[in-house]
Amino acid sequence: MVNINDYLSSTEEILAELIHFDTTSHKTNLPLISYIGEILKEASVPYSLVPNETGDKTSLFATIGPEGTGGIGLSGHTDVVPVEGQEWQTDPFTLTKKGDKLFGRGTTDMKGFLACMLAALPIFQEANLKHPIYLIFSYDEEVGCTGVRPMIKRMGADLPMPSLVVVGEPSNCQVVEAHKSITSYITRIIGHEAHSSLLHQGVSAIEFAAKLITHLNETQQTIQLTQNDTRFDPPFSTVHVGRIEGGTARNIVAKTCEFLWEVRALPDFDGSQIAQDMMSYAREKILPPMKAISSDTDIITEQITSVPGLASSPSTINLGMKLASQNESFAVSYATEAGLFENQGAHSVICGPGNIEQAHKPNEFIERSELLKCLALLGRIAEHQSR
Q1: Where are the alpha helices (DSSP H) in the chain?
Q2: Environment class of 228 (CB within 10 Å of its CB; exposed 0-12, middle 13-18, buried 19+)
Q3: Residue 19 — pLDDT band, cuts 50, 70, 90?
């Protein structure tokens, strides 16, 4: 029987190194991947890189144990969110220990899981595996789960197809069986510029943007009355406008305005329908009075990102709960890469250390007890793959 406590020290040492790499999404992750590669080489673990088109970022796919079916993948992203504008009491890129808490950007989301994966290499290699364990490291999860997609497309072709992927997003090491989808949009309104004293000759892009945003708010209210999946908090799909910008001066009728918005939809709800309905409303109700003043006016909506929801199968949920030694599973409202794995045929659950309430905040931390729970999970996975 593996003594998990023996691996906590090496987990913290690896986590300290991972935190030191500033892998904010707009920066390269190559130095961190190089560090991971050295650990894998020292352990004689083969791996493949899947770089992006510009070569400044890459995913990594490693295989431990024999080739064959029944492989379990452990998946985590290497990028983190920015620290600019946040009030940190410690250096966000230096692991700082205070009691049972380890502070640093990415400790919870989600370099704590990556550190556990790497620290558990001896556990995996000494387990006499009958089926493989895959270590999967991606990039650009925080900006739309874009980096993992080229690697997922190769699974089942020149990369193995896992029978199960455990995505280690922070869940307090509880099994998450479902999450919402997220689709984000930008809507641009093109009005007609005029002096504000001649308001009737202009088309205010800001005014008509406000009408569209009001329509989205009304759509949200309707959804709240018609959906009630109590596994989620909130128990319905959500529509949210997060940013708006438009106009040039107080005394000029605004020619342009744009707003960024998103739909976080329950797994069985097609969130893209919200954008289609909004544009139908725009064509029928909003554009005609705009074009009556100027034919150059327009409303354009473009999709920016789309991450599918997750709804794990009963057999996948049961295996996840068995590996986690639990008898209950949960749903979350945030989106992850798990839905992408699921859509490719790699059945997925979420189970990772840390509390999601710490993610993206200043003074982000993970508790040592969470790392121990994760190491215990990885030990059970090694035992399962040895049977």
Answers
A1: 8-20, 30-42, 112-119, 121-125, 148-154, 205-226, 272-281, 287-291, 314-324, 338-344, 368-385
A2: exposed
A3: very high
The pLDDT assigned to 1 comes to 60
Classify burial at 128, counting beta carbons within 10 Å of its beta carbon; exposed 0-12, middle 13-18, buried 19 or more. exposed
Exposure string for 191-205, b = 16+ CB within 10 A, e = fewer = bbbbeeeeeeebbbb
Please name the CATH architecture into which domain 4-179+309-385 falls.
3-Layer(aba) Sandwich (3.40)
Residue range 85-94, pLDDT digits in tens: 999 999 999 9
Distance CA 160, CA 152 (A): 10
What mean pLDDT do residues 34-62 have? 98
Average pLDDT for 246-261? 98
> Contact at 8 Å (CB) between 320 and 219?
no
With b meaning 16 or more CB within 10 Å and e meaning fewer, what string describes 77-90?
Answer: bbbbbebeeeebeb
Q: What is the pLDDT of residues 340-365, one digit of tens each?
A: 999 999 999 999 999 999 999 999 99
CATH of 181-306, one of 3.20.20.60, 3.30.70.360, 3.30.70.940, 3.40.50.1820: 3.30.70.360
pLDDT in tens, 289-303: 999 999 999 999 999
Contact 189, 205 (CB under 8 A): yes
The percent of the chain in helix, strand and coil, each rounded to the nearest 5, is 35, 25, 40
**Predicted pLDDT at 3:** 85
Of 167, 162, 218, residue with least CA distance to 334: 167
Cis peptide before 110 (omega within 30 of 0): yes
β-strand 298-307 against 101-103: which pairing, if any? unpaired
The residue extents of the domains of the chain are: 4-179+309-385, 181-306
DSSP letter (8 states) at residue 310 = E
Residue range 369-376: mean pLDDT, rounded: 98
